[in-house]
């Protein structure tokens, strides 16, 4: 990519998958802007912002466009996780899960899509989860939120494909990040995975980088590097 290439914005950039995506996109020449609730100190350009707050997101992305440049790629990796049986999920817990995951995709999308459509060019990659595909017990609100991301990606992928804007998703399996619960680090759990190991953030970042830089034929697709958890 040339030095004049548009910027890539990565939400949830401070750690885990988001930080790995930042590194992968920087390596291919993007000017990466990180957005997170805490400042991503590994980046030259970063903004502190709650992606579930539409007004904060609108203001942050307006500054990005004005101060850094047009957004050519958006990766939404901000996340929230908690474990709870369905009968114990409170209204606040359900609402927070949806705000962070669906709002964390929809709010940035509303900020960048008009410009991408006007320029007839752009790439969006949403981080979902294999639990949005397969589901599991005691994670209904998380699985529902991650599954809703896939529905939005598939619908929007069709809607904006004619404008040369590519909207896709990556649905990781159990990945070695700070959000991974202790129960998914035990030898017994690892033995249940066909790969017998956790995924690494760099694995997921490689899938994201492909969809941003090379996947010009992908529209509304879901890549799921999940260590064989869902086959």
UniProtKB/TrEMBL annotation:
InterPro entries: NAD(P)-bd_dom_sf, Sc_DH/Rdtase_CS, SDR_fam. Signal peptide: none annotated. One of its GO terms (molecular function) is oxidoreductase activity. Keywords: Oxidoreductase. CDD domains: SDR_c (cd05233). Its EC number is 1.1.1.-. SUPFAM superfamilies: NAD(P)-binding Rossmann-fold domains. Pfam families: adh_short. Belongs to the short-chain dehydrogenases/reductases (SDR) family. This is SDR family NAD(P)-dependent oxidoreductase.
